[in-house]
Design a protein that fits this description.
Mean pLDDT: 83
Number of helices: 22
Shape: elongated
CATH superfamily of one domain: YVTN repeat-like/Quinoprotein amine dehydrogenase
Number of strands: 78
Strand content: 25-35%
CATH topology of one domain: Methylamine Dehydrogenase, Chain H
Helix content: 10-25%
CATH architecture of one domain: 7 Propeller
Distance between the termini: 140 Å
Largest sheet: 5 strands, mixed
Structural class: alpha+beta
């Protein structure tokens, strides 16, 4: 951005100097001369026409223009304009007529559209218009009282007073009202204390409002009070200053009226009669801005006391020595003492106390000006004048006391003029003549009186025509140092210069002399050279001779009191050389230099060394080795100062020449003290986007960044920037900014002249952001802001509690897991030992069974051989049938023994495969056909699918037969009636595949991986138990053939076994065409199914009915042969059928096996003992299970007896007879209600109690039906919920009576009850129980009780 300051031209003094624009004082200032700076739209101002200026509590300058509100911070402007979308972001109208800062630190903006109240703390605007109670929206100005009230001048309507943001009083301008203001065109307001408000108007002059009495008093027009009033000012003494279109009028405290008119004599009145504004300035002066005459400064105390009209004028000029425009519309004295001047071309800023450093530059508008801004050399004459050598403008002689300048320049036509105009070195002779060295023009000796010159060192560069320094030593010897021409000594006898050959053609930039008479030469590229002309001694000090010497380009020298050499280098800063010790100290920008190139240096009268650098002015204090700079001051040229252009005058002033003129200052007048520039934060940016003030607070309370003491950010807002600025005016030039986030940073981060702290990836925490502004070394201003970055939830205390809880849980879970793993490991070890023990036990068991099986073969052989012989001799069919049964079961037992032995062989790996090449389709088909009979018996469909052609495989055919038998027998064993078993044989890629698939109950998923384990028996089919060997043996045999077996099954959807075997294996045997079907046994031989016997009844004898239940038909045949002579027999082949027949026939006794399909014996027993019709039937269980648990379970479910297989026939018949006899004995307990049952067992007592309850229920139904006169058998059966047969059989078993007999018995007993208890007669009792004949009743009664009914009372009494 372009600098907001216009370059300072020449300043001039007060009063008469302004009347004489060509006066030398206008260009060579004194300490009391002023410099004006310009800020306009090019600097960022919203508009050049400035109506009002104000300063807030932080120090920001606020400017009201025709195009909005501008805020200035010394560096840039921030503009606020009307925002139609967001009304609180800008003023209500862009034409800002007046700004007033209230005691609440709010800005009241008087606009054409109403009143806007801006709160800097919230960065929000609040608007007041006619809708909020204003008379009109055009507000011309405001005024504030000491009591906090604010007056609004409303153009065309009147005056309103506000307290805070509310209107509290109104003074209208209606002419017909008695207490009204005389004019609608109100232009100005001024409070006098808290009780008087002065009102100025454009056409009706002045009015006075007494705020206590609310009385309006117009001030009558006089010759002294103008009718056209522009502004009012009430001074602290109580005087009212009136700025009008006719000059200034003053109403004093004594009620006198004074007039300060316009004059044409500068300094004796006003520069213009149209006064627009007032402002109290320093030194008791009043500053008045005019419409066409610029600025007039009035010494108020002198004027009021003496009526002296002496004033100071600042008429418009463009060189910075006065205001830049004729119209001064507003004035504001800032807190730092600067006067801010609003004009129609921008803002002018001036320090009324003057700047301590002045800048002399060329002013082409004046004749009394230096010839060129680029200064090549300076020296002081004995007449207190200053010689100025310019680089291109010749030589000037400047008289500081008079400001006069005399010019000397090269004239081509005059050979006695300067050789050229590029003057780069100067030295005055004792006779007043001046030596002037030029750039490639040699050396000139100028006589100021005549202006003529004598020329020396003419020629080429090697001849010394480029003279860079002229020096006179303590002996009066004159020396000239040249560029690449070496050192020359002036020899007065010959009036010429001698070349010093000893040093060579070196480039000399500066010369100094120590107290020993040695010359010290600053050279370009040769370092520092100490040279004694008298002795010829020469010593070099450079990077090759002195350790730590930074560089060999030296521009300036100064010899300190202690003999040290101070040298200014190019790029390497300032060096302090100890020539004796040959040690070097270096000072650079890090130590406070404004630049590391030192072009010139000069000591002042106070011991400091002033340095002209390539970027400003610095100083060095040899006593403390401290460095500082003056770049924070106004008027310091920010450019390169030139080599050798530096002098200290006899008056103590320092002159430093550079490329932009001459800086002049008195070191004693510089106040090197800590600045009071406010350092404020201006903006917060997140992801480079500005954060509005309303987003910085919570719960509706917020403040803008400059007013905050802390900011709080979320954890995801760790990339942020904070802008800050030092409020230094008129421009914050040469402010070096730095910041440090404590404790995140351990050092200051320099940002040069950019006031921005860029922070990224800052961890959550609480920090202090410290910012620093440095205008000079050790001249710092600091501010700080607390920054709190909230941690994410996972780094908060609640999260840590959760972590601790989770960690504790994990530790607990880990410990539990470790404990479980340890237990599991121990369990596995225990399980392993258990399995090992089980394996050993199984080995012992198998070994035992194998040995036992071998032992069984001998007695079996001895059984089978005699049976075969008996079959040949037996003639009785009954005997033949029994012998055949013995033979078949003996063969089956022999085959089972052989299987057990084969399994043992497999376990011991002692059975080697007998691999031979066989045609296998035919034998496998035969094996499947052998199972067709068994399948039909179980009502299971067995189908086979085989290849159409025969193929050969290398197998052990006997082992393959075992595999097929096991798979088919398993399928048929577990399938249900009407299920389907499919056997399929196929060829596939050198292998043959056998698939056995059924639609049976299937295997649950948990058992799929375990069915191939040895001895494993699935619990899914409890009614069909095996040995747990078949599938394990099958898998072993398949693996021995290098094959595989797979099982797929879903519970309820059947099983599918798939066997894959290689067709070819290594064997030396030829093709074997024998068939396993020729072996010594067949399935038909072992499993010959016979039908169950048919029911048998003895029609002539009343034998007990026995129900026999067993799924083995041979057992049923055996029991039939055993019992058919003494009992009637009915049969059932499974538990469900047995239950149905028991309910249907109500047998006298039931014999049942336990292990049966559909319903086992235990379930059958449980249901029979809960059925009303069958509870009385004795139940005898037959089972091969002889363990205590099985027997106990049978008795718990109600079994009356338990006999284990194999059983003895005589014992069985005896047990049946015993159960029937017991049943008969229990009848007395059933029918005799008073019978004692102490002799009964516990189970018998339970049975008697249950049957007595049954009989009691039946008796209750019969007696109930007596009253209904309906005791027929069908009704009684229906009431009991039993069939006629079931009830008959049960009553017969319990009472040995049929239904009618039992009903009659109940009637007789009830009649006896009626005779005995109800005192009824015999005939009446007989009729009550359904007997129509008393005679027949007496007969039955006597049969029942043994006496007639008439003897009942006596008999009952006897009983």
């Amino acid at each position: 951005m372009k600098s907001p300051l216009i370059t300072l031209l020449l300043s001039f003094s007060f009063a008469f100097c302004h009347a004489k624009p060509d006066s030398l004082r206008a260009f060579f200032p004194q300490h009391d001369q002023l410099t004006f700076y310009l800020l306009d739209v090019e600097s960022g101002l919203s508009h050049n026409y400035v109506n009002s200026i104000e300063q807030d509590s932080l120090g920001f300058i606020w400017v009201g223009t025709m195009e909005g509100l501008s805020r200035y911070d010394g560096n840039s402007f921030v503009v606020y304009r009307k925002d139609s979308h967001y009304r609180n972001r800008g003023p209500i109208n862009n034409f800002i007529q007046h700004i007033r800062l209230t005691d609440r630190q709010q800005l009241f903006l008087a606009t054409w559209g109403g009143l806007s109240i801006y709160d800097p703390k919230t960065d929000q605007f609040l608007h007041k218009t006619t809708n909020e109670g204003l008379l009109q929206n055009d507000i011309t100005c405001t005024a504030s009282s000491t009591g906090g009230k604010t007056a609004l001048a409303i153009y065309g309507a009147g005056v309103q007073l506000m307290e805070g943001k509310e209107v509290v009083d109104t003074y209208r301008t209606a002419p017909d009202l008695p207490n009204a203001l005389p004019s609608k065109k109100i232009t100005s307001l001024a409070f006098q204390g808290d009780s008087v408000l002065w009102v100025g108007s454009f056409d009706k002059g002045l009015s006075k409002i007494d705020l206590k009495t609310k009385k309006v008093t117009p001030i009558q027009h006089t010759d002294y009070i103008s009718q056209n009033i522009n502004c009012l000012y009430s001074d602290p003494a109580g005087n009212l200053w009136i700025g009008s279109g006719e000059g200034i009028q003053v109403i004093t405290q004594e009620a006198d009226t004074l007039l300060l008119p316009t004059t044409n004599t500068p300094g004796l009145g006003l520069s213009d009669g149209h006064v627009l504004c007032f402002e109290k300035g320093p030194f008791g002066n009043l500053w008045a801005g005019t419409r066409n005459g610029g600025l007039t400064i009035i010494p108020t105390e002198q004027y009021l006391r003496t009526k002296n009209m002496a004033t100071s004028w600042f008429l418009p000029r463009g060189d910075g020595s006065s205001v830049f425009n004729r119209t001064v519309s507003s004035l504001k004295l800032a807190d730092d003492g600067n006067m801010w001047i609003g004009t129609s071309t921008g803002i002018n800023v001036v320090n009324p106390k003057g700047d301590p450093i002045q800048l002399i530059q060329q002013n082409l508008a004046s004749k009394q000006t230096i010839s060129h801004d680029r200064i090549g050399a300076l020296t002081e004459s004995k007449g207190k004048q200053v010689w100025v050598g310019t680089d291109g403008g010749g030589l000037d002689l400047y008289d500081p006391s008079s400001g006069k300048i005399r010019h000397f320049e090269h004239r081509t036509a005059d050979p006695n003029s300067l050789s050229n105009n590029y003057i780069i070195s100067l030295l005055e002779n004792d006779d007043g003549k001046i030596w002037a060295g030029t750039y490639q023009g040699g050396l000139n000796l100028l006589d100021p009186l005549t202006g003529s010159c004598k020329h020396y060192l003419q020629g080429q560069q090697e001849d010394g025509n480029d003279v860079r320094v002229i020096f006179k030593d303590s002996n009066g010897q004159l020396w000239a140092g040249t560029n690449r021409g070496g050192l020359y000594r002036y020899h007065s006898p010959i009036d010429d210069f001698d070349y010093v050959k000893q040093l060579g053609k070196i480039d000399i930039r500066d010369i100094a002399e120590d107290k020993h008479g040695n010359l010290w030469l600053a050279t370009y590229s040769n370092g520092i050279i100490r040279y004694n002309y008298l002795t010829g001694e020469k010593e070099d000090f450079d990077a090759s001779t002195v350790f730590g010497f930074p560089g060999n380009v030296i521009f300036s020298l100064c010899i300190l009191e202690n003999g040290d050499i101070l040298a200014g280098t190019r790029y390497e800063g300032l060096i302090r050389l100890d020539p004796v010790q040959k040690t070097v100290g270096t000072f650079t920008e890090e130590n406070g230099l404004s630049n590391n190139t030192i072009n010139s240096m000069v000591p002042d009268n106070y011991g400091k060394i002033w340095l002209g650098t390539s970027n400003g002015i610095s100083f060095f204090d040899p006593s403390t080795n401290t460095v500082g700079n003056l770049n924070g001051y106004n008027n310091v040229q920010r450019s390169e100062f030139n080599i050798g252009a530096a002098i200290a005058t006899a008056s103590g002033n320092i002159y430093l020449g550079g490329n932009k003129g001459i800086n002049v200052f008195d070191p004693n007048h510089l106040q090197q003290k800590h600045s009071n520039y406010p350092l404020v934060f201006t903006d917060l940016r997140l992801m480079n986007k500005r954060v509005p003030a309303k987003d910085l607070g919570s719960n509706g309370a917020y403040s803008d960044i400059p007013y905050l003491k802390k900011i709080e950010l979320d954890h995801n807002q760790r990339l942020f920037s904070l802008d800050f600025v030092a409020l230094k005016y008129p421009k914050a030039n040469d402010i070096q900014y730095a910041y440090k986030l404590e404790p995140y940073h351990d050092h200051w981060i320099e940002t040069q002249q950019t006031g921005t702290a860029n922070l990224s990836n800052v961890p959550p925490g609480e920090y202090i952001l410290r910012v620093r502004a440095r205008s000079n070394k050790n001249d710092d201003t600091e501010n700080q802001l607390a920054v709190i970055i909230a941690p994410p939830f996972w780094r908060t205390w609640p999260a840590y509690v959760i972590y601790l809880s989770v960690l504790s849980g994990l530790v607990w879970a880990g410990m539990n897991y470790y404990s479980d793993q340890l237990k599991l490991k121990n369990s596995l070890l225990f399980e392993k030992k258990q399995r090992q023990l089980e394996h050993e036990l199984n080995e012992e068991r198998v070994s035992f069974f194998t040995g036992f099986s071998h032992e069984l073969k001998t007695p079996l052989t001895l059984i089978m051989a005699p049976v075969e012989d008996l079959l040949l001799e037996a003639k009785n069919p009954r005997h033949i049938k029994g012998l055949t049964l013995i033979q078949k079961n003996a063969k089956y037992l022999m085959e089972m023994i052989n299987k057990l032995l084969e399994f043992r062989k497999t376990e011991l790996n002692s059975s080697q495969l007998q691999l031979e090449n066989h045609r296998i389709v035919k034998p496998i088909k035969q094996w499947v056909e052998q199972y067709q009979h068994l399948a039909r018996h179980h009502n299971i469909k067995l189908t086979g699918q085989f290849p159409k052609r025969e193929f050969t495989a290398t197998i052990d055919l006997e082992k393959l037969h075992i595999i097929v038998n096991n798979l088919l027998s398993n399928a048929l064993k577990y399938c249900r009636p009407k299920d389907l078993v499919t056997f399929r044989l196929t060829e596939e890629d050198g292998r043959f595949i056998i698939t056995v698939k059924d639609t049976g109950p299937g295997i649950i998923k948990e058992d799929l991986q375990r069915v191939f384990n040895w001895y494993y028996q699935s619990g899914s089919h409890s009614n069909r138990k095996g040995t747990g060997i078949g599938l394990a043996l099958t898998k072993r045999l398949i693996q021995d053939h290098h094959g595989s077996i797979k099982l797929q099954s879903d519970a309820g959807h059947g099983c599918e076994f798939t066997i894959s075997l290689p067709k070819q294996q290594q064997t030396t045997s030829p093709l074997n065409t024998s068939s396993i079907g020729d072996s010594h046994w067949s399935l038909d031989d072992i499993v010959h199914h016979i039908p169950a016997p048919k029911a048998s009844f003895h029609l002539k004898n009343d034998n007990p009915l026995v129900l026999l239940i067993d799924d083995n038909a041979e057992i049923l045949h055996y029991l039939a042969n055993l019992l058919h002579e003494d009992y009637d027999l009915i049969y059932a082949k499974n538990g469900q059928e047995g239950l149905e027949k028991a309910i249907q026939y109500i047998p006298d006794i039931i014999l049942s096996d336990i292990m049966m399909p559909e319903k086992n014996g235990i379930d059958l027993c449980r249901q029979l003992k809960t059925q009303q019709a069958t509870t009385h039937i004795p139940l005898l269980l037959l089972s091969a299970k002889d363990n205590v648990e099985s027997i106990t379970l049978g008795f718990e479910e109600g079994a009356d007896a338990y006999i284990t297989k194999p059983f003895n026939g005589q014992i069985l018949t005896s047990r049946i007879a015993n159960l029937l006899a017991t049943k008969a004995r229990l009848r007395a307990y059933y029918v005799d209600k008073k019978a004692r049952d102490n002799a009964l067992t516990e189970s018998q007592q339970k049975a008697v109690s249950k049957e007595k309850a049954f009989l009691a229920k039946l008796e209750s139904h019969i007696i109930h039906q007596l009253a209904q006169e309906n005791t027929d058998v069908d009704t009684i059966c229906q009431l009991m919920g039993m069939s006629r047969t079931s009830l008959f059989r049960k009553l017969k078993a319990l009472t040995d009576q049929n239904i009618n007999q039992y009903t009659r018995t109940v009637k007789i007993h009830h009649a006896a009850y009626l005779i005995r208890e109800k005192k009824l007669g015999v005939a009446q009792a007989a009729y009550e129980v359904g007997f129509n004949s008393p005679k027949y009743f007496r007969k039955l009664f006597k049969e029942q009780f043994g006496h007639l009914p008439s003897a009942l009372a006596k008999t009952l009494k006897h009983d």
